[in-house]
Amino acid sequence: MIVILVALAFSWMPAAAHGDERCSGRRVSANAVRALDDVRAFVECAKQYLDENGPEESLRAFNEDGRWKHGSLYVFVVEIQPSGETARRFVFPPDPSAQGKVRGESLDDFGNDLYAEIHRIMRDRDSGWTYYSNPHPVTGKRSPKASYLIKVDWKGIPAVVGAGLYVPDVPGTCHEDEVSAAALTANPSDAALRAFVRCASMLVESKGYLAKHDLEGDPRWKDGTSYAFLLDAMGNQVITGNGLRVNGNSLHEWLSRDPYSDQFGGRNMVDVVRTFGQSFIYYRSVDHSSGSVLPKVGFFELVAGDGVPLLVGAGYQPAPDRPAAVPGCSDNYATAAAVRTRTDVRAFVQCAAEYVLEHGEEEARRAFNEDERWKSGAIYVFVDGVQPSGEDAQVHVFPPEPSREGSVWGTSIDSFGSDYYYELHRILSVVDGGWIYYAFTNPETRLNEPKSSYVIEIDWNGGRAAIGAGIYERDLPGTCDPGEVNALLLEVDPSDARLQEFVRCAAYLLESGGYFAAPILTGNHRWKFGSVYVFGINPNTGEVKFSGNPASFAVSFRQPELLFGGRDLNEAGGVFGETFWYYNFLNPATGMEEGKVGFVRLVQTSEGPILVGSGYNR
Asked: pTM of the entire structure?
């Protein structure tokens, strides 16, 4: 299967610096926004557009140009004022007649005026996230929304430019009319599948094995070939929405009563999911409505249910006559230096594939090896022949070691049990593009580390080839290396990205160890150094369950009133699952109140939900 790509001409922008301003290296148009990381890049580009073109042209563009608005996504500009009673909306595409007028009182579900919250955050910061509820412009339903804001000057008036995303699969949403097996069957896509599995995962986290009644009996979770299922840590299917199967003795999704190695060539896909936390899986499955064996795209998420690791999964059969809608490189691209997330990786690879089609193989090989646009640190483009084994697959492009190019790699069995090239060939025999998860040498650390790469099948000098790129992440369940993620590193080199890694690794420890992990999180030097420490809060009551600095949480029950102007960010954290907090708080290292950036992640434990969090002082 050869992917036919449309070459799109555009001007490359210079590589991004390693900082918060990423629009020079990461561009995303409104129709390409899929995740919160996209939102941040989108807003950074909107600010750059405003800086370069001024308020009048920006007003026109944000209201009229497709680059800046698509569906429920749009750019807004609002005045920084203590209340919606005095804050004017300078740009508001859903209702241009409201532009230039005050918003009026804007109390949302989290307890205070949205504009008061924006004002509070922007007193001490130039940018940040705000979490609130807002009427969805497409559905009309009041829904949780996360927006990224950057402080700007609008005709001499302090304001913020921002945009936000309504996420259908956060803990506070997962509405049945938006996320269901029927919706997945009607409109199969990676995004719909991911939302379906994430919502099923939250059900399993809250109910454990008691979710069996819902997943097997509620039509929300099964419709035709779309259904949720649950695997234990050994890969046995213990819950399934497919009524034709016998739990515990099922055929799984793997076609055979033999070990699942028949489907995956010896690759341990359970270990893949347990290492990466979530993963796409591509395979062939029996369609019981027709009896045919058809390609299937699966997605799995690792959760803790009843105190044990479980894998929640589902899948969809891709329609051969309906290729997936992938934004072109003119709408969505990232330079190597700007790649931070899997979303960035996919955009990066799409652009590399278009570059090959537009410029040809020889120029592409030169560019991928030499140009900073295509390589930075551990990020680079690779091109491999598609063959069932590394003994036959030729290496076409490999910047870390160009001397390998033009020769076969040889057998490459990784820690998940099979030849990387076999897995690459298998995946691209099922889909034209997708994710491959494996262990590989990180060229920066020289260590063998888990890597997730996005690959697309292309033609390379008349033969089948895969073009791809990948990232090594430090906060996966199977990584979280203490030497790379710890309180000391966060203290001496604070950043939002490092804070997120730190909190996510702490959350994985609590998920796996339950409350037995609390003494480790509050006392071990990995989790406590200087002003950095870990805490846990019950989002329903505001009670601090544990903290590496108990004294600083003496006012825990009054946090919303004291810290957030009446806004209940505990509740917001419980709704969104992950949130940033911006506030002034006691620094235990200095004994003084200082500005602080916090981040919390929701964890379900046997004691109930807990917001695991930490922060760094600005």
From this structure: 0.90
